[in-house]
Write a structure and sequence with these properties.
Number of strands: 0
Radius of gyration: 21 Å
Number of domains: 1
Strand content: under 5%
Helix content: over 70%
Number of helices: 16
Amino acid sequence: MKKLLSVNIHNKKRIYGLDILRAIAILFVVIEHGKHLLPSRLNILHEIFVFDGVTIFFVLSGFLIGGILIKLFETKKPSKKLLLSFWLRRWFRTLPNYFLILLTLLGFNWLYNDGIKISEVKRYFIFSQNLFYEHPNFFPEAWSLSIEEWFYLIIPIIIFFLINFLKVKTKQTFLITTIFFLVIVILFRLFKYTQIEINSIYEWDKLFRKQVITRLDSIMYGVLSAFINYYSKTFWVKHKNSFLLIGILIFIITKVLFVTKVISFNSLYNSIFSFSITSIATALLLPYLSNLKSGSGRIHSTITLISLISYSMYLLNFSVVQLNIINKISWMSLFENIYIIVFLKYFMYWGITIIGSIIIYKYYEVPTTKFRDSKRIKKYFYNLD
């Protein structure tokens, strides 16, 4: 069993500090989703100690992908083949796991005869389910993946157009593109806030937090961080400790304001600026963490493992494990003691999520990545290494 679940965590290219951030983000997400299995009186603990893991993922993704794009356009001649090569590598990384879980959920729907209409699901295949609309309840985690995929598609095209056709220099192109999206998305949220009435946190979640057009700026803060890291490396490294402290303080201050109800869910700040503040706080952690290259010991191994399986954990934990496995068991017919039921449900939630994610990573994600990097695939596309 140990050999079956063993994962190779040794890779010299990995940055330990970024693995820490990725691991923290996925743990926040899984803990937050897991609160639905616990007594409601414990929700206050989640409100105090759990932060927005998805926004952390957005900024980290923007930092990594932004860095890749900057390096590509600075070192290689912009071309359609270059764009296609970038998209191929991204889609090989994100789509196989996504479609695996999407098809699994369709299988559960058929098994349980839940009556989900194909018309409600088909938009998931092209990531348009929350482009302009409220995200449907089927596969609820997919809202963030849609935002990521549209970022992968839109931003490289804009950058390619500015560099190739308008002859704007690469540095200016990235700065212009980043600032444009940071400003335009905030203005759109402001406009939207003035046009609708938010009566519940559920409406706020659907209309502001989980739509593509309202959240692209979170990823762009990561791109801005990549821009500063690439073009102002000395500044980036020199102030890393100060930035780390400021970022942590921002997280703590905003958490205190929310927990004490100083900021309400439907306030101007929460609907328009809260996403930006969380993104900025995350970005301020990056100078320190991106320069923390390596670690050692059991803690390092655990963090690296969680980071490696984080994508599978994100896809599995709620829709598959909680909604379609744990919640489908008739617990009251098996046990009379409610405390035993709560313990078993929560234990199963974490156990199935982690073991299932390791299996998907080792036997599906890694082979897919190896296939992407094989000569059979690489020969048709631009070498990005």
